[in-house]
Write a structure and sequence with these properties.
Number of helices: 8
CATH architecture of the largest domain: 3-Layer(bba) Sandwich
Number of domains: 3
Radius of gyration: 23 Å
CATH topology of the largest domain: FAD/NAD(P)-binding domain
Structural class: alpha/beta
Shape: flat
CATH superfamily of the largest domain: FAD/NAD(P)-binding domain
């Protein structure tokens, strides 16, 4: 069996997912895979191309822009909160394991680790992937100043990040999207979902029910019909292809896991409030203390002037 064709638990790997690169693309991919309960590590050598930016003014959600150091800290905190492990090391090479099941990932400073899947999310040349496929397919040759140079082919991956190498996905370099941080993050999210759906198929989810989305909803949207597990079972079974080859026990397990996941997406008002407060508290950790104190003094002065 190949890395994608092997269901979780059947083969021991150090990680389900190794992400190479801790910039916007890598962190976005890792957040999605970790939230889908895939054991994810992000190797980040600390030299993401975003750090060449003097100041970021077009990243959604920061009206006055954001400095790169703070954004980098926020991205990594988010990835760790989702369940990713972040390792400050450089991936030097990736190879198939001897049994062709999964990958062996070699780093500069640490011991090799094994992984079911690898997400490449670095803008540097992709040399660490050399040998995983026919190099004439993965790399292209350019002539510059009379000399030939090889570069990773940015069109090597499909639009969803999948590649001819089973278990290898490309979030970056890819086309021209990586030149804008916000576009790179979107690309990473897309590839993260591609990985999750590939794993779900490997675990027996038939194609119509393998699709995945990560979206929290208000529990008030659950009416009497959809608050009933039997209604979800009916919905799941209606989407199954007639020719699926799942045994009754495996089908029941997958069905109940998916229903549990669906119900976990619905949040009560109290839970929404709790998560909102916690989210803002975490943002405060990245704001300069002096700015927080100055804002507190302004609020206090305003309240005093209003007699409150």
């Amino acid at each position: 069996m190949s890395s994608i064709e092997t269901a979780r638990g059947e083969t021991a790997f150090d990680y389900d997912i190794v992400v190479v690169g801790g910039g916007p693309a890598g962190c976005a991919a890792g957040i999605f895979t970790a939230r889908a309960d895939l054991d994810t590590v992000i190797f980040d050598r600390g030299r993401s191309s975003i750090q060449r930016c003097a100041y970021l003014e077009n990243y959604l959600g920061f009206p006055a822009g954001i400095d790169i150091e703070t954004l980098y800290e926020l991205m990594h905190d988010h990835a760790e909160e989702a369940g990713c492990e972040i390792v400050p090391d450089l991936v030097e090479s990736i190879e198939r394991r001897d049994d062709a099941d999964g990958f062996l990932v070699h780093t500069q400073d640490g011991d090799p680790v094994t992984a079911r899947c690898v997400v490449a999310a670095t803008r540097y040349d992709g040399e660490y992937m050399r040998g995983l496929d026919d190099d004439t397919a993965m790399f292209e040759t350019h002539e510059h100043d009379g000399e030939e140079h090889e570069h990773f082919d940015k069109q090597y991956a499909e639009s969803d990040g999948s590649t001819p190498v089973d278990g290898l996905f490309i979030a970056s370099p890819y086309g021209e999207t990586g030149y804008q941080a916000l576009m790179a993050a979107g690309r990473g999210a897309q590839v993260g979902i591609t990985v999750i759906e590939a794993v779900r198929r490997a675990e027996g989810y038939p194609e119509p029910v393998a699709n995945y989305y990560d979206w929290m909803r208000m529990d008030t949207e659950l009416d009497d019909e959809w608050s009933d597990r039997d209604r979800w079972r009916e919905y799941f079974d209606d989407r199954l292809p007639a020719d699926h080859d799942l045994g009754a026990e495996r089908l029941a397990t997958i069905r109940e896991q998916e229903i549990d996941r669906r119900f976990a997406m619905y949040l009560s008002d109290d839970e929404i409030d709790r998560r909102s407060e916690r989210g803002q508290q975490q943002l405060l950790e990245h704001i300069d203390d002096e700015l927080i104190l100055a804002a507190a003094r302004e609020i206090d002065a305003e309240q005093r002037s209003n007699g409150t």
